[in-house]
C-alpha cells in the first residue's frame, strides 16, 4: 500500500537551473535578479502598485502592522478561524484583537457582523480568503471606508483567485501572500507584500531593509544610505526567488492541474456525501476557485475523527485545520466572551483532503473510494 501524503513539495522544472543561475550571477542576497523577476511578475500580472518579496507571509503581515503604525490601544478585527500569523502580526505591536465569526456556509469572515465590532479605536480589518475563495469585499470595503478603517488582505492562500474579476491581494490597501511549501506555488518558505495604496511604498522599502534607505541608494536616488526608520530584515535570499520564479512562469499549468484535481474530487464526492450530512465547499458567485484546497465539512467531530482514522488506515493523510483563535490557550482569557459558533464548527468539522500538484488521478479516485467505503459501512 503506497501512502498518500497531505502535501508534497515539487519541482516544476527550472527551479534548480535558476538557483544555479542566481549563484553564478554573483549575488544571492536579497533583491537580486530573480527577486526582481518575481516583483515584475506580480506587478504586471495582477496590477499591484508594488510587489515586495518577503521571507514569509507572516513577515509581510508584520510589515503591514508596522506600516499602519499599529500601537497599544488600537483595535484590529481578525477572523477567529485563521492561521495565528493573521493575528500575531498585530499583537506584536500591542493591538487589541477583536475576533469575528465565519460565515455560516464558508469559513470566511462574516461581513454582516463587522459593523457591530467597530469602535472609534478600530484601525484595521484583516480578511483571510480561506481556501483562496474571496471574502465579500464590496461589503467589507464599504464598511471600512465609512469608518476610516484600513483593509488588509491575508491572501496567503489566494494566488490567482478573483473577486468580481479583481485579483485577490489587489483590493485591500496592503496584502500578504505565502509561498510556503503547502501553497499553490512554493519556495519552501517565502512571501510577498502587495501594496495597492502607493502611499505605503517608500516606507515599506525602508522597513524591509532594516530601517535603512538602501533601496533608494541602489536606485541612485541618494548618495549614501543610513538608518531612517524602524525596520527589520524582511527580504529573502535570491535563491528563494529563483525557486519561486520557476513556478510562477508555469503558474497557468500548475493552476490547470490543481483545478482538474479539485474537479475530480468534486465529481465523485458531491453525489456521495450529502446523505451522510457532509457538505462540500461553496464558492459564492462573486468568487473564483483557485483550487488551493479541497475540504469537507463533517456533521460533527466524531464523524470527522472516524473519517480521518479510516483514511489513515488506508495510508491516506487527511487533516483538519485551524482551531478557533479566540479559544486558544494564548487568547482564551483575553477574549470578550462572545460565542463564535461558525468558527468553532469549522474547527471541529472541517477536513482537508490531500491536494498537491503531483497528486495523480488514481490517487484521487482511491481517496474518494476509501471515503465512500467508510461511510457506507459506518
Ligand atoms: C500559510 C498561511 C499564513 C502563513 O504563511 P507563511 O508564509 O508560512 O508565513 C498566513 N495566513 C494564512 C491564512 C495562511 O494560510
Automatic annotation (TrEMBL):
<dbReference type="GO" id="GO:0000271">
    <property type="term" value="P:polysaccharide biosynthetic process"/>
</dbReference>
<comment type="similarity">
    <text>Belongs to the DegT/DnrJ/EryC1 family.</text>
</comment>
<dbReference type="InterPro" id="IPR015421">
    <property type="entry name" value="PyrdxlP-dep_Trfase_major"/>
</dbReference>
<protein>
    <submittedName>
        <fullName>dTDP-4-amino-4,6-dideoxygalactose transaminase</fullName>
    </submittedName>
</protein>
<dbReference type="Pfam" id="PF01041">
    <property type="entry name" value="DegT_DnrJ_EryC1"/>
</dbReference>
<dbReference type="GO" id="GO:0019180">
    <property type="term" value="F:dTDP-4-amino-4,6-dideoxygalactose transaminase activity"/>
</dbReference>
<dbReference type="InterPro" id="IPR015424">
    <property type="entry name" value="PyrdxlP-dep_Trfase"/>
</dbReference>
<dbReference type="InterPro" id="IPR000653">
    <property type="entry name" value="DegT/StrS_aminotransferase"/>
</dbReference>
<dbReference type="InterPro" id="IPR012749">
    <property type="entry name" value="WecE-like"/>
</dbReference>
<keyword id="KW-0663">Pyridoxal phosphate</keyword>
<feature type="modified residue" description="N6-(pyridoxal phosphate)lysine">
    <location>
        <position position="183"/>
    </location>
</feature>
<dbReference type="GO" id="GO:0030170">
    <property type="term" value="F:pyridoxal phosphate binding"/>
</dbReference>
<feature type="active site" description="Proton acceptor">
    <location>
        <position position="183"/>
    </location>
</feature>
<dbReference type="InterPro" id="IPR015422">
    <property type="entry name" value="PyrdxlP-dep_Trfase_small"/>
</dbReference>
Amino acid at each position: 500500500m503506497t501512502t498518500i501524503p497531505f502535501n508534497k513539495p515539487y519541482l516544476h522544472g527550472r527551479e534548480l537551473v535558476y538557483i544555479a543561475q542566481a549563484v553564478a550571477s554573483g549575488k544571492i542576497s536579497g533583491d537580486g535578479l530573480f527577486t526582481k523577476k518575481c516583483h515584475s511578475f506580480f506587478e504586471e500580472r495582477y496590477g499591484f502598485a508594488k510587489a515586495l518579496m518577503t521571507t514569509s507571509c507572516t513577515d509581510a503581515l508584520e510589515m503591514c502592522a508596522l506600516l499602519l503604525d499599529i500601537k497599544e490601544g488600537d483595535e484590529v478585527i481578525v477572523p477567529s478561524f485563521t492561521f495565528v500569523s493573521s493575528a500575531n502580526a498585530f499583537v506584536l505591536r500591542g493591538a487589541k484583537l477583536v475576533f469575528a465569526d465565519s460565515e455560516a456556509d464558508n469559513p470566511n469572515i462574516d461581513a454582516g457582523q463587522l459593523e457591530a465590532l467597530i469602535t472609534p479605536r478600530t484601525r484595521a480589518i484583516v480578511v483571510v480568503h480561506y481556501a483562496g475563495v474571496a471574502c465579500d469585499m464590496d461589503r467589507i470595503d464599504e464598511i471600512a471606508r465609512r469608518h476610516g478603517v484600513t483593509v488588509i488582505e491575508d491572501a496567503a492562500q489566494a494566488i490567482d483567485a478573483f473577486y468580481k474579476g479583481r485579483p485577490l491581494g489587489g483590493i485591500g490597501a496592503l496584502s500578504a501572500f505565502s509561498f510556503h511549501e503547502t501553497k499553490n506555488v512554493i519556495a519552501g518558505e517565502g512571501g510577498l507584500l502587495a501594496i495597492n495604496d502607493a502611499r505605503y511604498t517608500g516606507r515599506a522599502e525602508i522597513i524591509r531593509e532594516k530601517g535603512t534607505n538602501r533601496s533608494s541608494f541602489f536606485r541612485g536616488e541618494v548618495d549614501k544610505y543610513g538608518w531612517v526608520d524602524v525596520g527589520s530584515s524582511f527580504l529573502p535570499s535570491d535563491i528563494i526567488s529563483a525557486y519561486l520564479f520557476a513556478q510562477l512562469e508555469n503558474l497557468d499549468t500548475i493552476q490547470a492541474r490543481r483545478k482538474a484535481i479539485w474537479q475530480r474530487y468534486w465529481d465523485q464526492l458531491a453525489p456521495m456525501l450529502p446523505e451522510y450530512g457532509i457538505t462540500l465547499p461553496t464558492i459564492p458567485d462573486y468568487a473564483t476557485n483557485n483550487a488551493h484546497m479541497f475540504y469537507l465539512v463533517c456533521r460533527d467531530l466524531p464523524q470527522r475523527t472516524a473519517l480521518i482514522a479510516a483514511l489513515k488506515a488506508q495510508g491516506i493523510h487527511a487533516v483538519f485545520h485551524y482551531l478557533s483563535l479566540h479559544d486558544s490557550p494564548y487568547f482564551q482569557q483575553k477574549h470578550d466572551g462572545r460565542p463564535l459558533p461558525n468558527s468553532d464548527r469549522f474547527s471541529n468539522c472541517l477536513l482537508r483532503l490531500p491536494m498537491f500538484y503531483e497528486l495523480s488521478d488514481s490517487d484521487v479516485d482511491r481517496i474518494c473510494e476509501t471515503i465512500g467505503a467508510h461511510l457506507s459501512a459506518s
